[in-house]
Amino acid sequence: MKLRVKELTFSYENKMILDHVDFAVRGGEFVSLLGPSGSGKSTILKLLTGVLPCEKGTVMVDGAPVKGLSPHFAYMPQNDLLFPWKTILDNVCLYGRIHGSLKAMRREARASFPEFGLAGYEDCYPSQLSGGMRQRAAFLRTALCKADILLLDEPFGALDVITRGEMQDWLLGIHRKMNRTVVLVTHDMDEAVYLSDRILILNQSPARITDEIEIKERARDREWLYGQGDLRRKIYSLIMAGAGEVRESGRNVGAQ
Ligand code: ADP
Ligand code: MG
């Protein structure tokens, strides 16, 4: 297993957010964490990257325990902003010094611009780009980190529905070429179905992984996605069952 997360438990002050979260991801696999807003998805990624200190539980990469900040993870936070006063090239090379020489990184970054749909925008500033292009630049910055696992927190959440669709098509294509392990956090069921090898369903806070759905289809396109009515129905009922379970046990925020 590339990544193994065992019994991750976390509270903010005295409010329990994660309750023994367990999952594993194989090398090269694309796994989505799907759950309602506020269920603790971003918290999971912050614990993996060491942005938040891990209280209880273990994170293992390639069988070895990981603590604190680790070079294994490239993290794209939920609101990843580009610095408005830096050019796109400078923005995407921001982590260059962490991962080797800045010169080599700039060369590699320039070579990646066409693939990320940014050719010709190297010396532009973020305000000169569309929303989708800015997201691709933020994604390029993450991808340029020499980490083997990409952690993406709702990377397309702020985009309009058409641009989001285009970005999902693009990510599907580029993931096949990149051959990297991806953990994507999303509350968008269609996004999870379209992009994932496996979907892990989180219930409401305190979050646990309640279900897991494997999606074997390799030849995906939008037509395939539109035909996935049964799968969507199943996921929806699993999410609702998870929400109901929490309500019954009185552990939801409103009952506290
Ligand atoms: P998601 O990403 O699934 O929307 P988060 O992981 O951001 O959820 O948040 C999970 C829960 O933790 C939410 O109820 C949120 O209000 C709470 N929370 C997030 N950040 C903090 C914080 N810094 N202090 C206290 N509570 C927080
Ligand atoms: Mg979040």
Summarize the structure.
With about 260 residues, the chain is α/β, with parallel strands linked by helices. It has helices at about 40-50, 90, 100-110, 130-145, 160-180, 190-195, 220-225, 230-250, and strands at about 5-10, 15-25, 30-35, 55-60, 65, 75, 150-155, 180-185, 200, 210-215. It has two domains: about 5-70 and about 150-255, Rossmann fold, CATH 3.40.50.300; about 80-145, no CATH class.
List its traits:
256 residues; alpha/beta; Rossmann fold; 2 domains; six-stranded mixed sheet; four-stranded antiparallel sheet; 8 helices; globular; disordered C terminus; binds adenosine-5'-diphosphate; binds magnesium ion
Task: Describe the model.
This protein has 2 domains: 3-72 and 148-255, Rossmann fold; 82-146, no CATH class. The protein has 8 helices and 10 strands. The protein has helices at 41-49, 88-92, 102-112, 131-143, 161-178, 189-195, 222-226, 229-249, and strands at 3-12, 15-25, 30-34, 56-61, 64-65, 73-76, 149-153, 181-186, 198-202, 209-214. A 6-stranded mixed β-sheet has the order 6-7-8-3-9-10, with helices on both faces. The longest helix has 21 residues, at 229-249. The termini are far apart. Residues 247-256 have low confidence and may be disordered. Residues 12, 17, 35, 37-43, 205 line the site of adenosine-5'-diphosphate.
